[in-house]
Amino acid sequence: MSTSRAAPEQLHPLATLDRVVHSPARLMIVTTLYTLESADFIFLMNLTDLTWGNLSSHLSVLEEADYVEIEKTFKGKRATTMISLTPAGREAFREYREQLQEVFEQLPE
């Protein structure tokens, strides 16, 4: 019995999507950061309606993939966490978007 896997070019186009970006919560984060130079943690938390812990967890996944950079600074006496997409994160989002566009273009009307 053979357990060979299909070559990437033989897979359904959705099977090769970047799963780091494809998660709904991370997709919200990445699409937001794609349009901005950076955003603070509280802004992202309010925009995405994620809890502090959930947003933190998703940002950790994105940071491990080198898709976001997280910088902790102070504004006066208040700590601020700023998040921005890295060049690798921007490229990953562009590729993700292109793959989805290809899938949609192949669908019958």
What are the SSEs and their pairings?
Blueprint: H1 19-22, H2 24-35, E1 39-40, H3 41-48, H4 52-64, E2 68-75, E3 78-85, H5 87-106
Domain count, please report it.
Answer: 1
Total helices: the number is 5
Rg estimate, integer Å: 17 Å
Sheet with the most strands: spatial strand order: 1-3-2
CATH architectural group: Orthogonal Bundle
pLDDT below 50 for ≥5 consecutive residues: which ranges?
none
Strand content: 15-25%
For the secondary structure, the number of strands is: 3
Q: Name the structural class.
A: alpha+beta
CATH class: Mainly Alpha
Q: What is the CATH superfamily classification?
A: Winged helix-like DNA-binding domain superfamily/Winged helix DNA-binding domain
Looking at the structure, the CATH topology is Arc Repressor Mutant, subunit A
Main β-sheet description? 3 strands, antiparallel
Helix fraction by DSSP (H/I, runs of at least 4): 40-55%
The outline comes out as elongated
> What is the overall pLDDT average?
89
Could you spell the SSE succession in H and E letters?
HHEHHEEH
Terminal CA distance reads 40 Å
Summarize the structure in short.
By secondary structure, the chain is of the alpha+beta class. It has one domain (about 20-100): Orthogonal Bundle (Arc Repressor Mutant, subunit A), CATH 1.10.10. The protein is about 50% helix and about 15% strand.
Summarize the structure in words.
- This protein is an alpha+beta fold and 109 residues long.
- It has one domain (20-102): Orthogonal Bundle (Arc Repressor Mutant, subunit A), CATH 1.10.10.10.
- Helices cover 52% and strands 17% of the residues.
- The protein is built from five helices and three strands; from the N terminus they run H-H-E-H-H-E-E-H.
- The chain has helices at residues 19-22, 24-35, 41-48, 52-64, 87-106, and strands at residues 39-40, 68-75, 78-85.
- Strands 1-3-2 form a three-stranded antiparallel sheet.
- The longest helix is centred in the last third of the chain and has 20 residues, at 87-106.
- The N and C termini lie far apart (40 Å).
